[in-house]
């Protein structure tokens, strides 16, 4: 786009973590005064790339040029000193220290060896003013709200005479109003000629503030495009690695689920769930025997919906009912007791207890039912463990093998069994087949199908479109924390899901539309903010 | 959303929060001061000898060694660490100074403090470089240093005797009406205040205790700060040990036993948070004096046995910490 030398140019960047290639031959060029979006699904390599850019990781291959000069950042301090700074998602600042101290930590101005507080506060005040922020530099950071803390973090970044500022999901904890303050700061940085790398999952933000976008997938460079003129559907296709024309079918073990009879009271209904900007008025209904798929890009609110239904996050508004009975908000215990089960996305962190045996992992949740006065009945435990190991085809040497020695697929089956032995009525599966080999994947998929046939209601979140298309009786599509569409029957296809992810309009997401909601194949609404024109270069 | 908007838009609300935060930290700091004043008033009314120069100077002198140890401990605790080795290091320094007394007071003092500074440095290096918890590292130093000094002396005190009058004068003489150890106490607390509030090292001590991960990500050399505070703690414990030996005219291998815990108690009572990042040297000074005066009151009462005194002091410490916790949580 610009003939001038980019501020920062990365070429053929490769990074290998203990034999696994995280990045392979990735290119990125940032122009002066450009806001450059970096997007990609899980494992795309975004964070690895920015960590290499800002010196947190060292690269295993490729070259990096800052204003045409080859550079090599060994540590974040190196990168900072050269004006390449990252502002991370979780604000990493000092709560009890003042705003000025946070900005100038390690570089405090001094007179006669003592800190020159007056100078430091004046410098900080000038810097904050330059960014259009009304913050007292002498206030302890802890007295500011999250948004302003984040602005302080950005101010610290800018105070290094930053040429490149990386913002990693800067809006994830901000409210709509606070996002505007951030946009304002970004526009000022842009006007000063700073290049901004903007990582976000929210399309509305990308199209509002970014000039160009670089798409990564599975650690590889896919494309760099100006955002103006790039259709959302093409962006989604690039992210997911799908051709717009050829979307295939027929690779999963689902038999094609049946749609629930109309008119029946739903087994589960979650209505108007709201939680900040992460969930905005989301409604989902699942009938007995139905598998409802949930589609959406990373950060679209899929997992947040599941967690809200399960009571793991408290919502600001909304209601969850199972068989017509309301479940107390934010109470996991009550959700479990009334028959909701939740197989989380992250097996390792939230599921298995690696050092315990298959037997113990499987019966963990059922122990109270298997115990008399706190003593576990070994016989009954064995009975249950045998039953589920057979039924789910869990492959282990024996029930006393440590679970960490099992394959991912078998671990997942044990976790599924853990929930099933509590006889749930409603099952939430978050990425049930991620990281599992093809064979076990098929087994889990057909198992889910059987469970639904036996009368369970299932909500299945998945990034694999084939899985959703073939496994679901209906597919709910999420984007930017909202439900943007629902597909049923013959409308369920990869192409339609992608279109809904990209273009599904917000107006469609109201509760009233659940009954008949098909994807509204309309043009983007008039309210769509115009894209910022690409930077003109230096 | 509208709530968030208000907090940003209305300067008054942000200002109000700032004032509340300041008040809470004021109350936290001044809680100990208020208690100190209350104890003074109580004692002044009840015991007529309390407000005499002799009694007050005595209280100050008796607590000046502990005060120095607590000063070093303040730096350590502000980083979120703990130093259990200071009691043993006092004995090491006292015995070292007494042993070297014949070489002249200056050499004896400098060498003794240098030895404990190095031992403190060892603590810091192991904690910072090997990333082992300060509790364990300094516990090991506490046991080993005590063992070393007991082995070296054969469990007997090393007399300073007449070999260095200058050395013993450090513990016994006065500058005007003020005992020399008290002069050390005042000067070093003033220096400590200056360092903590007006030097990079001092601010980085606070930063480390506030959020060590953030401090590291912001490019601070956290290892250097960590090593610095343990070396400083060792040095101050050494000086306290030397003054103690000078006052008693002998380096005792059992000196300072339990003083690490008294120092921690003083720091905490003063209002410095054990989790680090918040507190001050002035708070510690108040904490030291408060615990010292309570001891003084027990002595005036006379009828409370040392065991019951210990029970009461333990309860007092607990109450103070609970109150502080409440106050800091209110923020």
For the biggest β-sheet of chain A, the strand order reads 6-9-10-3-11-12
Instruction: Describe the global form of chain B.
Output: globular
Over the alpha carbons, how many angstroms does the gyration radius of chain A reach? 25 Å
- Fraction of residues in H or I helices of chain B: over 70%
Compute the number of strand runs of chain B: 4
The oligomeric state of the chains shown is: heterodimer
Based on Cα principal axes, name the global outline of chain A. globular
Main pleated sheet of chain A: 6 strands, mixed
Instruction: Kindly estimate the percentage of residues of chain A that lie in beta strands according to DSSP.
Output: 15-25%
Number of separate helices of chain B: 14
Q: What is the terminal separation of chain A in angstroms?
A: 11 Å
Assign a percent range to the helix content of chain A. 25-40%
- What is the mean predicted local confidence, pLDDT of chain B? 88
Q: Could you walk me through the main structural features you see in this protein, from its secondary elements to its overall organization?
A:
The complex is a heterodimer of chains A (538) and B (331). Chain A is of the alpha/beta class and 538 residues long. Chain A has 18 helices and 24 strands. The longest helix of chain A is centred in the middle third of the chain and has 16 residues, at 176-191. Chain A is globular, with a radius of gyration of 25 Å. Residues 506-538 of chain A have low confidence and may be disordered. Chain B has 331 residues and is mostly helical. Chain B is built from 14 helices and 4 strands.
């Amino acid at each position: 786009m610009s003939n001038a030398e980019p501020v920062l140019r990365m070429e053929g960047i490769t990074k290998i973590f203990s034999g696994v290639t995280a990045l392979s031959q990735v290119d990125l060029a940032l122009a002066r005064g450009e806001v450059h979006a970096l997007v990609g699904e899980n494992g795309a390599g975004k964070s690895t790339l920015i960590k290499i850019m800002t010196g947190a990781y060292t690269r295993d291959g490729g070259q990096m040029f800052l204003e045409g000069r080859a550079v090599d950042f060994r540590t974040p301090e190196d990168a900072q000193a050269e004006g390449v700074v990252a502002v991370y998602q979780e604000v990493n600042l000092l709560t009890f220290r003042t705003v000025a101290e946070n900005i100038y930590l390690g570089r405090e101005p001094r007179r006669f060896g003592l800190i020159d507080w007056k100078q430091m506060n004046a410098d900080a005040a000038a810097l904050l003013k330059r960014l259009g922020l009304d913050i007292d530099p002498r206030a302890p950071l802890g007295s500011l709200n999250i948004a302003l803390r984040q602005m302080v973090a950005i101010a610290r970044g800018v105070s290094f005479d930053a040429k490149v500022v990386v913002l990693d999901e800067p809006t994830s904890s901000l409210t709509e109003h606070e996002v505007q303050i951030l946009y304002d700061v970004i526009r000022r940085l842009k006007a000063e000629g700073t290049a901004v790398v903007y990582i976000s999952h929210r399309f509305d933000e990308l199209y509002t503030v970014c000039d160009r976008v670089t798409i990564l997938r599975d650690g590889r460079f896919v494309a760099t495009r100006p955002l103006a003129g790039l259709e959302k559907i093409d962006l989604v296709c690039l992210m997911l690695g799908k051709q717009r024309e050829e979307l295939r079918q027929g690779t999963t073990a689902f038999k094609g689920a049946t749609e629930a009879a109309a008119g029946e009271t739903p087994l589960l209904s979650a209505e108007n769930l709201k939680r900040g900007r992460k969930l905005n008025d989301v409604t989902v209904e699942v009938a007995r025997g139905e598998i409802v798929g949930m589609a959406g890009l990373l950060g679209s609110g899929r997992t947040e919906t599941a967690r809200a239904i399960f009571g793991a996050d408290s919502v600001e508004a909304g209601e969850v009912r199972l068989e017509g009975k309301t479940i107390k908000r934010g109470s996991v215990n009550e959700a479990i007791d009334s028959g909701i089960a939740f197989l989380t996305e992250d097996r390792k962190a939230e599921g298995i207890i690696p050092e315990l045996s298959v037997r113990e992992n499987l019966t963990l949740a059922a122990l109270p039912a298997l115990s008399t006065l706190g003593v576990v009945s070994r016989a009954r435990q064995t009975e249950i463990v045998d039953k589920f190991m057979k039924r789910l085809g869990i492959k282990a040497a024996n029930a006393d093998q440590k679970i960490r020695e099992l394959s991912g697929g078998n671990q997942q089956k044990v976790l599924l069994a853990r929930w099933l032995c509590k006889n749930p009525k409603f099952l939430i599966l978050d990425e049930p087949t991620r990281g599992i080999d093809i064979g076990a994947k098929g087994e889990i998929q057909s198992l889910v199908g059987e469970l639904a046939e036996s009368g369970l209601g299932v909500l299945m979140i998945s990034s694999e479109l084939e899985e959703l298309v073939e496994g679901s009786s209906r597919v709910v599509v999420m984007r930017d924390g909202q439900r943007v569409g629902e597909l049923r029957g013959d409308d369920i296809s990869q192409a339609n899901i992608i279109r809904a992810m990209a273009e599904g309009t917000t107006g469609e997401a109201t509760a009233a539309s659940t009954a008949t909601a098909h994807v509204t194949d309309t043009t983007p609404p008039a309210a769509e903010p115009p894209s910022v024109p690409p930077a003109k270069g230096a | 959303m509208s709530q968030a908007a208000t907090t940003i838009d209305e300067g008054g609300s942000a200002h109000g929060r700032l004032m509340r935060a300041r008040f809470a930290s004021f109350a936290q700091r001044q809680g100990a001061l208020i208690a100190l004043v209350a104890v003074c008033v109580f004692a002044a009314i009840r015991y007529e000898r309390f407000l005499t120069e002799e009694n007050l100077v005595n209280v100050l002198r008796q607590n000046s060694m502990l005060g120095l140890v607590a000063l070093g401990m303040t730096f350590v605790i502000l980083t979120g660490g703990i130093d259990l080795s200071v009691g043993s290091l006092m004995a090491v320094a006292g015995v070292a100074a007494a042993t070297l007394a014949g070489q002249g007071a200056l050499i004896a003092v400098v060498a003794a403090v240098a030895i404990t500074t190095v031992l403190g440095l060892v603590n810091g290096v192991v904690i910072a470089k090997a990333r082992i918890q300060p509790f364990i590292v300094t516990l090991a130093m506490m046991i080993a240093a005590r063992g070393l000094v007991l082995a070296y002396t054969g469990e007997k005190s090393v007399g300073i005797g007449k070999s260095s009058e200058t050395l013993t004068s450090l513990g016994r003489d006065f500058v005007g009406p003020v005992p020399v150890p008290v002069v050390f106490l005042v000067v070093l607390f003033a220096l400590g205040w200056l360092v903590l509030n007006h030097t990079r090292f001092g601010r980085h001590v606070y930063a480390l205790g506030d959020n060590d991960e953030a401090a590291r990500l912001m490019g601070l050399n956290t290892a250097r700060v960590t090593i610095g505070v343990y070396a400083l703690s060792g040095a101050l414990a050494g000086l306290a040990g030397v003054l103690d030996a000078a006052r008693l005219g002998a380096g005792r291998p059992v000196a300072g036993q339990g003083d690490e815990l008294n120092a921690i108690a003083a720091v905490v009572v003063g209002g410095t948070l054990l989790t680090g990042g918040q507190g001050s040297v002035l708070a510690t000074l108040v904490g030291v004096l408060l615990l010292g005066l309570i001891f003084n009151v027990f002595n005036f009462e006379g009828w409370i046995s040392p065991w019951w005194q210990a029970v009461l002091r333990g309860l007092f410490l607990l109450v103070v910490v609970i109150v502080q916790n409440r106050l800091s949580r209110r923020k």
